[in-house]
Specification:
With about 90 residues, this protein is an alpha+beta fold. Helices cover about 45% and strands about 20% of the residues. The chain is built from three helices and two strands; from the N terminus they run H-H-E-H-E. It starts with a helix and ends in a 7-residue tail after the last strand.
């Protein structure tokens, strides 16, 4: 996690310079390292999902000021399905 955090700081520092990261060789190299470290961290924390799509569920709690609060209540769920981790930038 420390290596990933250090890489993130480096990538953010490069972004602050205003360089166009998609065309800068050093930026692309650092971004790739950060992506690899993040994928490794995900595997360590959540397991190796291989080529399976990933689903992330958000449990939401709405305020009473929402127009349909009386009809639908305060709770809701948002489910996002994403591509396998190796394909996500």
């Amino acid at each position: 996690a420390t290596i990933r955090a250090d890489l993130e700081k480096q990538v953010r520092a490069i972004k602050k310079t205003g360089v166009i990261m998609e065309t800068d060789e050093k930026s692309l190299e650092m971004t790739a390292k950060l992506q690899d470290a993040t994928r490794t961290l995900i595997k360590l924390r959540y397991g190796d999902f291989g080529e399976k799509n990933i689903r992330v569920r958000f449990d939401l709690e709405f305020q009473p000021t929402i127009p349909d609060f009386a009809e639908k209540g305060k709770e809701g769920t948002l489910l996002i399905e994403m591509a396998p981790i190796r394909l996500i930038p």
